[in-house]
Design goal:
Distance between the termini: 67 Å
Structural class: alpha/beta
Strand content: 25-35%
Largest sheet: 7 strands, mixed
Number of strands: 7
Length: 191
Amino acid sequence: MTSKITTLVPALLIGLALTACNNLADRPGAHVTVVHQGELETRDVRDVVIAEVINESTAQEIPVEALRAGFSKALVKRRYSPLALPYVDANTREASAGASLLGEDATLQVVVKEWDRSQWDTQGVLVVEVEAWMLDAGYAGRELWGSRLERRYSLRQEMDVAATEAILLRQVCEQIADDLLEVMPAHTAKP
């Protein structure tokens, strides 16, 4: 009996350790690097314009509208007020980042560095590198905060039940936005 316990205890400890290591990747911000910690926490940023997504990757097609919608939802979770995307698009086509035309406090600029769908159709894998930058609308686009996400998303199981690819892409875009903004300081009201 004692020899069974002596054999079982190390095996259980190893199993627990491997399980704990496996879950580390799922903690908030695990795949995110904050690349600029500016004045976002000290500024009273409420209203945010989500700029058009900049594609610096080699991918020809990126679901930019789904990404922007995902970032809009993620900003609300962080207690910011994103301006409606159709309103922003209709009123800022000629504006540059940092030019506050709509009374916004900041602009969220999303930059796609990598969008690799080479394993998407066969394995449901998407590899991304995406940056998010909060730019001050009142000071010519000065950086208030920035982060970079590098992650491999595996959606094989979701592919089997998703009604359309568009729904699946919207889901992964929302996850990308949530992952990136999870480490951003939440809005707190300033007196």
